[in-house]
Amino acid sequence: MKFRSTRNKILLYFGIAVFVFIILVPIYWLFLTALTPRTQLFSVPPNYFPDFTLQNFRNLIDQVPFLAYLTNSILFAFGAIILSVILSFLAAYGFARIEVPGSNFLLFALVLTMAIPEIVTVVPLFQVLRNLNMIDTIRGLVMVMGSVLVPFSVWVLVTFVKRVPVEMEEAAIVDGANLPQVLFYIVIPAMKPSLVTVTIINFINAWNNLLYPLVFSSSVRAKTLTVSITEIFQARTPYGRPWELISTLGVTMVVPMIILVFVAQRGIVSGLTSGSLD
Amino acid sequence: MLKRKSKFLLTLVVLSILLVSVNMVVFAAEELIVGVGGWAVEPTKQALEELNFTEKTGIEVTVTTRPGSPPEFISQMTSSILGGQTPYDVIDLEDDAAINFSRSGWLVDLDPIYDDQFWDDWTPGMLEMVETWNRHEGELFRIPHNYETQYFFYRKDILEEKGLEVPQTWEEMVEVGKELTTDEMYAVSDGLAKGGYIGVYVSYLTQQAGGNPFDFGPALRESLQFIHDMIYEHEIFPSSALNKDFDQVNNDFVNDRVAMMRMWPYFFDYQESQEDWYSEDKVGVALPPKGPESRDTFVASWGWAIPNTSDKIDEAKTFIEFMTSVENAPELAKMSTWFLSPRHSIMEEIDVEESRLASNLKKYSDAGVISSRPFHSNFRQASSIVEELASAYLTNQISLDEVMERGKEQMQALEE
What we know:
The complex is a heterodimer of chains A (about 280) and B (about 425).
Chain A: H1 2-34, H2 55-63, H3 66-97, H4 103-112, H5 118-131, H6 138-163, H7 166-174, H8 179-190, H9 192-208, H10 211-216, H11 225-232, H12 243-263, H13 265-273
Helix pairs in contact in A: 1-12, 2-12, 3-6, 3-9, 4-6, 6-9, 7-8, 9-12, 9-13, 11-12
Chain B: H1 2-22, E1 32-36, H2 41-50, H3 53-57, E2 61-65, H4 70-82, E3 90-94, H5 95-103, H6 124-133, E4 135-136, E5 139-140, E6 143-144, E7 148-149, E8 151-155, H7 156-161, H8 170-180, E9 186-189, H9 198-208, H10 218-233, H11 246-254, E10 258-263, H12 266-273, E11 283-286, E12 297-300, E13 302-305, H13 313-324, H14 328-335, H15 344-349, H16 356-367, E14 370-371, H17 379-394, H18 400-415
Parallel strand pairs in B: 1-2, 1-3, 9-10, 12-14
Antiparallel strand pairs in B: 3-13, 4-5, 6-13, 7-12, 8-10, 8-11
C-alpha cells in the first residue's frame, strides 16, 4: 500500500515536472534569444550559455518608438480595465439585484456576444469609430476593447454579486445608507477577490490584444507594443527575420504580466476558487 | 475606511481624466501618410529631406511603418478600406500584396502620372516586370522603385585554394560541389523552410529549367529532381536546409559551413557587417549556373501605390512622381540601395565601382540574366501549394509523380 502511494507520488511529481518543463522551455528560449548577441544566435551546436548582452534592448529602442508604444499600451490596457470593470460591475449588480422581465435573456444575449469572432466585428467597428472621429486614438481603442471585455466580466461578476447576502445591504439601508454607499461600503469590499481577478484577466486580454490596435491605429499616437511586433518582423530588410529583436520585444511584453500575476496571485486564486466573502 | 475609499475614487478619477485628455487633441490629418517597411523608414525620410520634397511641393509628409507580415497587413488594410478609409495615402507594396490589392480593386490607376517617354528609362526586362506584376486590366497600379535581384555568391578563397573554377552549369555545380563538400562544409545551400523560402529556390531553378513552377510541368519536375539529387545522391546540399530560412543560411555561409548559394541582395550588407570574417577576396559574385534552358535569376520588386480610399490622391501622385522621376531616381539610388534599379538614368549616373551591389546589378543586367518573377494571379495561394508539395517531396514523404499529379489538381481547383 505504502509502495503504491510512493509510486503514485513519484509519478505525480514526474508528470508535474514534465508539464512545467514544457511550459517553461519556450519562455527560457525567449529570454535566451533576447539576451544573446545576434552573431551567436544561429551557432551550431546551439549555445545555451552565450555571452549575455543587453544590446538587443538598446537596438529595440532604436528600431521602434518604444516609449511611445509602451505608453500607449499602458493607457490602452488601463483604460480598458477601468471602463470594463466599472461598467461590468454596475451591470452585474443590476442583473443580480433588479428583477425585470427578460433580464435572464438579456444576460444570455450579452454572454452570447462573446462567441462572435473578433474579426467579424472589425469592419462595422471601424465604421463606428470613423463616424465618431476616433480612428487612430487611444480613446477609440479603449472604447472598443472595454466593450469587448464587458460581456465576460458581467458574466463572472453576476455570480459574485449574488453571493453577497442581500440582508447586509438591507441592514445598511435601514441604517440610512444610500445606493452608492451600499456599493462602496458593502458590495465592493465583499467582492474584492472577484474584482481583482476580473481586473487582472481584463488587463492581460487588453495588454496582449493585437487585432484592435493593429486595425484601428495607424500612427505612433495610438499604436501599442503588440503592433510593433508586426513592424519589427522585418525590421532590417524585407527578407531577414530579426529573431533577437522579436524575442526582446516578447520579453518586454511578458515581464509586466509575470510581475502582475505574482503580485496579484493571492487575489486571483481566492477569486477563482472561492468567490466567498472575506 | 472612508479615507481608503476616497483614495480609490480619486485614483479612478485621475486615471480617467488622464486617459480621456491624452487623446483630446485632434491631430491635424493634413499630412500625406506614407507607409513603408520598417527598414525603409529612414531612407525614405532622408530622401525627402535631402531632395527638399516639402519645399518644392508644399506637401507635408509623415513616413510611418506599415506591418511587415502579410496577414496583419492585409487585416489592417481590409478593414480600413472596407470602412472607407486608409491608414496610408501612399504604400510601399511588395509583389504579392500588390497583386492582392489590385485584384480587389483597391488601388488607383497611376498611368496618368507619366507619358510614354518616361518608360524609355526602363530596361526591357524591367518593362516586362512592370507589365506582368504592376498592371491589371490595362491599369498601372504600382510603380516599382527597386529591383531586388537574386545573386549567386561563392567562396572565392576556397575555390582558388582548391584550384576550382566557378561552376557555369548545373552539372558543373554538382562536380565542383563534390570537390568542395567536406565534413565541415557543404558546397551548396539555400533556405528551404516552408513559408516563403523553399518556393523562392524552387521557382529560381524551375525558371532556369525553362518553366513556371505554377504550371506543374516538366521544368518543375526537373528542378525538384535536381535539388533532391544534390541532397540525397550527391550529398553536396544539407538536408537540414529544409528547416532553414534565409538568415540561417546566411549565417552558415559566414561561418564557413557553406561554399555557394543563391541569395537576395541583403546578403551584401550582411556579409560586410561580419567584420571579423569578411574580406574582399573571400566572397565572389558570379552569374547563376545555367540550367537546362537558361541562367536566369528573377527579381522581386517593391513599388509605390495609392489606395483609392485615400482623400489625398493628387498629393499622393505628386509624391510618387517625385520619387520615381528620371531626375530624382539616380539621386535616390545614390542615397540608398532601397531605391536601386537598373534604370538607364541610374546606371549612367551611379558610380558602380563604389557599390558592390550596384556593380553586380549592372553585371547581371548587362548579361541579360535578370527576368521577371514567375507569375500567378493568386500568387500567395499558388506559392503555398508549390511549397507544400515541394517540401513533402524533398523530405521523402511523397514521390515526384505524386507532386505533379496533386499539384495540377490543386492548381486547377485554385483556378476554378
